[in-house]
Amino acid sequence: MKYSLIDFKQQIKTEKARILQFWAEKSPDQINGGFIGKMNFDGTVCPGAEKGGVLNARILWTFSAAFNAGSGESLETAHRAYHYINQQFRDTVYGGVYWSVDAQGKPLSTRKQIYGLAFTMYGLAEYYRATNHPEALDFANELFELIEKHSFDAQNGGYWEAFTQDWQLLEDLRLSEKDRNDPKTMNTHLHLIEAYVNLYRVRPNERVEARIRHLLEVFEQYIIDAQTDHMKLFFDARWNPQSTAVSFGHDIEASWLLYEATEVLQDEKLLKKWRHIALRMADAAAEGFNEDGSLNHEFDPAAHHWDTHREWWVTAEGMVGYINAFQLSGDERYLRYVERLWKFAKIYLINAEAGEWNWGVYDDMSPMLTEDRIGFWKCPYHNARACMEILKRI
Description:
Elements: H1 5-26, E1 51-52, H2 53-68, H3 75-89, E2 100-101, E3 107-109, E4 112-113, H4 114-131, H5 134-150, E5 162-163, E6 184-185, H6 186-202, H7 206-223, E7 234-235, E8 246-247, H8 248-265, H9 268-285, E9 298-300, E10 305-307, E11 310-311, H10 312-329, H11 333-349, E12 350-351, E13 356-357, E14 360-361, H12 381-393
Antiparallel strand pairs: 1-2, 2-3, 4-5, 6-7, 8-9, 9-10, 11-14, 12-13
Helix pairs in contact: 1-12, 2-3, 2-4, 2-12, 3-4, 4-5, 4-6, 6-7, 6-8, 7-8, 8-9, 8-10, 9-10, 10-11, 10-12
């Protein structure tokens, strides 16, 4: 890197503190409890907005992880997130967690989206690491058992996407209106293995280990394209691909998350295999780089279409993925990727006045003004985690 890692570390340390301060001060809902559901780009709070389970779970994980990394003041926000999820999102009748609640905390969307359960488990495991609170671990274990009971596909492998409140498979399985309606997706499986890995860290046992190994096999056999090293995104029940689109952000995010899964298992054979896979995935994701140092969003080769807007989470995950690739290979070109992504973030994404990162920019570098600063999908998880991972790795 053109500047020393010591300088880079200090910049990242400062940015982590700014992100945490923004969320600790701006996101709590002082009227209805928990956290606000939506803040517009300009900082305007939308008081009647629904509150997403994923946002709340990601806040729980972020501030628990920050406490575990030495930010003692973060525990208060982590406590707030845990208690709100436990009291407002937890379904005490059928088990699991709701997809969303209204502004006052009453159930709104009672569907059981496995993606949402995974992120709640991810946050609960991290909160347990921070507090040794046995009820949090029990809650995380309950979610694991529910997912295994209702979502695991014993015939074809992997997991179904979404259910009704009482665990009947839904017809509309989508995470959002932007997604395809398919029974299995890369995205849910990626964040499910992420959650299982974090649960395994705090509660190592054979059943969780077996499912982590199964998910690694699913990624190797079905999700990662052996010809291109990109991931396929959408599948039918028998793992036939339903889309040709490539997500550069998910490719680089998965490259380090999947390798992390092998690290927690401490299996030398798997480590060796996934080291090579991680580097191939990192190289494949690099096909999305622009001259300005940013990564494009997606590419669909069948449609010959590039989605060239740049989003905050892709940049953040890219920084972690490429510093991981450098650690695995010693190849300094990966550090140059990190440097370029960080420079792009400082110029176009980090909003010093607001204290958080903008959602993204369009191809002409104009900001995406209609996107949230806080929202159902706009959270502190990607950029705060990137800062924490980079600091840990340096």
